[in-house]
Predict the structure.
Amino acid sequence: MPECLVFRVPAQHPADVSQVMGLVASGAVEVTEIVAIFGKTEGNGCVNDFTRQLAVMALETALATALGCTAAEVGARIALVMSGGTEGGLSPHFLVLARRDGPAVPVGKALAIGTAFTQEFRAEEIGRMAQVEATAAAVGRAMAESGLTDPADVHFVQVKCPLLTSARIAEAAARGHGVATHDTYASMGLSRGASALGIALALGEVDREHLTDSAIGTRRDLFSGRASCSAGIELMRNEIIVLGNSQGWTGPLAIAHRVMDDGIDLPAIRGVLTDLGFLEAGQLPPHDSERVIALLAKAEPSHDGLIRGRRHIMNDDSDINATRHARALVGGVAAAAIGRTDLFVSGGAEHQGPDGGGPVAVIACVRD
């Protein structure tokens, strides 16, 4: 039976992949078993956050040597999802996800993983229905690869998606095509939003009839409770990782999710932990904290400028981008619950949970 393995390792800087390669050197995982790597890097998470690209380049170079292939071939076989921004106390780290053949011992439902890639998008397709539909199709392929036939068994879908730059906008114009926006920062939100709606479509969370180009980024009532999308300059396709629980998989890990209604929705995080069998009501004690392999969450400031009726200034701060505030806020709440700061909190939750909130999922060791 297949088994999904997840390893969490620290990073001293965006190009520090020594701990990732240390897993391979120690025999903890075979390099050929790695199917995806998530990374939290300490950039600003905006258009010019090159820490994401630096981390990808470092991983591709190191993995190419281990695999005996080119860096480009690494990118074609392993989904490398870098999320910039470790504001507040968030700690830079990598999550290495692997698939191997485990013992044919049924354990109930265990963590399952599937990956898929879309085609490379043209600039004029980013943030539009072409990206929605391509993402939905890729989610379907990833589910099929993982054997997750019931959308209810899917608990988290991570997507790395592209954004628009001035050069990409100009290239589209030279071909006679307009783009969804000329604001490169806004393009990140539209790309994330289109990707999230593609996930929602694939999982049956929204109806196709409600989806149009004009709905992307505006219809906040349309969202997925299991989507996490991160935009970056380092790619032009969507890379999709589906995580769920399946009877056809084995191993000690499982995943659960809830939806945070706002940035301080601690009960949602506690609910996920309860779903996974953690009983403590307060912060997890150290031995339970280490059983949590990964916390994955989205962070987004509410558009009305309020959290439970009280004013916040995240959208009004011209010095620090609102998504950076949101990551710090949600990261602090999540760290207080888990008792650790190496948590994968990603900013920009367009169509990923309700306005001001977002999905949160936990991967934990639930059996020996």
User: Anything to note?
Assistant: The first helix runs from residue 18 to 26. The radius of gyration is 19 Å. The CA atoms of residues 58 and 122 lie 26 Å apart.
